[in-house]
Amino acid sequence: MTRDYRPAYQRVLDDLQERIAAGDLKPGDMVPSEGELAEEHGISRGSVRGAIRVLRDTGIVEVIRPKGTFIRTPPTRTVREPSSRYQWEKDRALLSREERLSTGASEKESGLDTADLEFSAKYEKTISDEYISGRLGVEEGTQVLKRTYSTTSIKSGSVIGRSNSYIPLDIVDGNPDLLDDRNEPWPGGTQHQLSTVGVEVDSISDRILARVPTVDERESMKIPEGTPLFVIEKTSIDIAGRIVEFSSILLPADRAELKYSIPLKRWKKGQHAGN
């Protein structure tokens, strides 16, 4: 008989991963209890907990107390490619309403249909604090329109992304439709909304950070323990050089991919790299 030199927790881990790969344990299924796995493998409950911890930290299972441990439905993955997305959004703003209704950025990045996604939007007029004022380049205490968005995959139940958007109120108050969240999701998104008040976005800059999610973010967005959040601070500037929108976009790292393609200037004919 060949001796198994793997650590006890590793034997349980490998066994559960093989069951998942074979389809014996499917999303939504309950994993055998600590006691059952300990007895089956002839090891301690502590070793079983070590295996479950690895599966939980990698997002394969979720522990729902006091019910038990369940195979997690894989979250919907998105690919965000700012280098092409922002121009696509600008071009889309010029299309007819029917064409703009056919798809949105969330559908484009997730590969899902509109019917597969649940959108929520909340608008409120508020006063800019020091941080938001600095991002918008306005005086502290300026009236702004705060817009909070969330997109959820209906199938997986996972939040694809969440964002807070801030626009100086004097930019959009000329169009009452832009102040009413019942008009969301707006065909054509923010760039089309801004175009209705004569604003053309000229450039967009992203600042990408990563941090640990808060307890509320982890629970409400169903983020596995140990999984960080991407935070994209997006600043939109119009053709007059004014900052017209600042948004903070939250993307759980277990379901988001950030992709960039940066064009480089070619060397002139006859130019060569230095020695």
From TrEMBL:
Keyword list, A-Z: DNA-binding, Transcription, Transcription regulation
SMART domains assigned: HTH_GNTR, UTRA
Domain HTH gntR-type: 6-74
An example molecular function term from Gene Ontology annotations: DNA binding
Pfam family membership, one: UTRA
BP term (GO), one: negative regulation of DNA-templated transcription
Protein name: GntR family transcriptional regulator
Organism annotation: Amycolatopsis sulphurea
Taxonomic lineage from the root: Bacteria, Bacillati, Actinomycetota, Actinomycetes, Pseudonocardiales
